[in-house]
Amino acid sequence: MRLPARLLPAAALIPTAALLTGCFASPGSGQASADGEDGGKRIRVAMMLPPRSGLSPLSDDAFKLSRWSTAETLVTLDEDGDAEPALATEWKQSGKTWTFTIRDGVTFHDGTKLTAQSVVRSLTVAATASPKPRILDGVELTVKAEGDTVAVTTGTEDPLVPQRLSSPQLSILSAKAYKGKTVNPVGAGTGAFELTQVNGTASATLDRYDGYWGGKAKAPGIDVKFVPDGTARAAALRSGEADVVEAVPVSQAALIDQDLITEVPMPRTNTLYLNTEKGVFEDAGMRAAAREAIDAKTIVKGVYEGRADVAEGLLGPALPWAADLRDQKVQRAKADDPEGATITIGTFTDRAELPEVAQTLQQQLQKAGFKVKLDVREYANIESDALAGEFDAFILSRATVLDSGDPAAYFYSDFATDGSFNISQLADAVVDKALKKAADTKAGDARRRAIMEAEASVLATDAAVPMLHERVIQGDAAGVVDVAHDPRERELITVDTYRK
């Protein structure tokens, strides 16, 4: 219901443009100037989510530090998810232990030198934190220095240790970051930009670090504002107050010069999970009937205004190798006649599109012969019921690669008999065997093939019906050059980014 103007709070009556006035004003006295001495211009960034944990790298705030090129990890990932050198130049495995050679000549922003002991300190803090960074959930990890190398030992052989260490939550910071009760990254990173000031959940300032081991950044600094309101972020791009804008809402994208926006495929799939343990969808023929009833193209066109990709499988275009390795001949059950069977579909309101997706699915499944009830709540109030199998079906927007950049963990958590996020209540020996093979295979082409075999085994059960792969819409002003468009959301402003 639209409220009459007299009932709206005063702030709601102020035009969005007015709320943004001064949003990216030049820093005041004692702070970095708006432009660099060499004529380069500072980059103004409008980010969606404010810090939740004071920019601690042990939290999801770590991805902000990574996107600003201020905190770095031992390794990074290439487009395919393979590990590449960063603060470590090489590594080798011997059983449960991986040995990493630490890059020479790297200094932290406070002037201290990166050493093997520095790495041990950062990784040990992460490994012993409570809660642990999620990339280490269930992983027993110990670290020790051996000369200019660091030995990382896990409780069981783990082929993904280098990929795990690429997680921004395992960034390496100087000793000063660990002096207080919480980890403070200000002035403690190794990246191209030094984090110099954080103003709570409002803003952050970074200046170019001229001693960066990877070469001098082209931009003199970054000025960040946290702008949770999507309409306000879009307005900042249109008005020229922001140079780079995160997550432009679909509803605002059409109002912006299309040359200023880029749709970045996300490793996130909107999926209908079907309860295989009890109820209507315990029967494979009924699951097949639901699959055949779904018209994902209509959902993409109607709900997402065409700014998403129809799913061919559980893994989408954010993983460029998936399509080439996908088995197009998955054997599935034949569809039965629903004959008026009643089902309840659950989903949540936290992602604005999902309730609308649920309504569209309701219509499609009813047309196919099902009777459909919807149960839509906030995620915090519905997750436990979903995991307990209280719904016949559940709509979820699910990240398909976790912090290691590898989908095997997602497949295991969602579809293994003992998976921690098994909403479909799936217990299938063929699937379990395929998942174990994928998890145990060494990183590289062989592992990717095993992962796609696991995907095929899941799709054959119809325990999950992938509908679409989401995109994030990023806004870049006309004068900004070489902004990163990263599906994993680890890069944004890099050493090569600058503003004309």
3D architecture notes:
This protein is of the alpha+beta class. The protein has two domains: 224 residues, D-Maltodextrin-Binding Protein, domain 2 (3-Layer(aba) Sandwich); 206 residues, Dipeptide-binding Protein, domain 3. It is built from 14 helices and 19 strands. The strands form four sheets. Strands 1, 8, 9, 10, 11, 12, 13, 14, 15, 16 and 17 form an eleven-stranded mixed β-sheet that branches. A four-stranded antiparallel β-sheet has the order 4-5-7-6, with helices on one face. The chain starts with 15 loop residues before the first helix and ends with a strand. 46% of the residues are buried. The N terminus is likely disordered.
Sum up the structure in keywords.
single chain; 500 residues; alpha+beta; D-Maltodextrin-Binding Protein, domain 2; Dipeptide-binding Protein, domain 3; 11-stranded mixed β-sheet; 19 strands; SBP_5; SBP_5_dom; signal
Largest beta sheet, briefly?
11 strands, mixed
Average pLDDT number: 90
The CATH topology of the largest domain is given as D-Maltodextrin-Binding Protein, domain 2
Number of strands: 19
Helix tally equals 14
Please report the distance between the alpha carbons of the first and last residues: 45 Å
What is the second-level CATH architecture of the largest domain? 3-Layer(aba) Sandwich
- Counting helices, strands and paired strands, the structural category is alpha+beta
* The CATH homologous superfamily of the largest domain: Periplasmic binding protein-like II
Please state the CA-atom Rg, rounded to the nearest Å: 24 Å
